[in-house]
Design goal:
By secondary structure, the protein is an alpha+beta fold. It is built from three helices and nine strands, in the order H-H-E-E-H-E-E-E-E-E-E-E. The chain starts with 12 loop residues before the first helix and ends with a strand.
Amino acid sequence: MKKRNFGRGFFDDDFFAEFERIEEMMRDMLDEHMEHLDDSDLKQMEGSRPKIYGFTLEFGPEGKGKLTEFGNTHSMQRQEQKQKKGEPFVDVINHPENVTVIAELPGVDEKHLDVKAFAKQLSLRVTDPQRLFSKTVVLPAEVDPKTLKRSLKNGILELVLKKA
């Protein structure tokens, strides 16, 4: 792998070394995933739903990274069967007049989505046996559950609740 020179005068080598380590880790994950694809995966892809594979990398306050994979490829389905239920990735945005919750639910159909709103929390559940997601989200402010508006588009669920 060719190293890039980003004008390192301002930053020390440790700053860029972390990005290079993350890039190497992502390449290793992709290579490992591609090794698990076989002819049955390719045959299954023909005439079926799109295959989804991805990951998120989050850093906590202590600086430690947490890598989480998601998707519906054959190897990911085997991994998810071991875990039974997955947690969708969720962002909560506290606006002055409302609270917005955005969840990643790849491949989920509206008819399999169960959302329940309460004054201080929100419950998300997917009932599709192929995609088991479940999460309870604590809201940053008290909301009026009756004002829940939801939109599911391309696997992204957006929920908006007015503050009480």
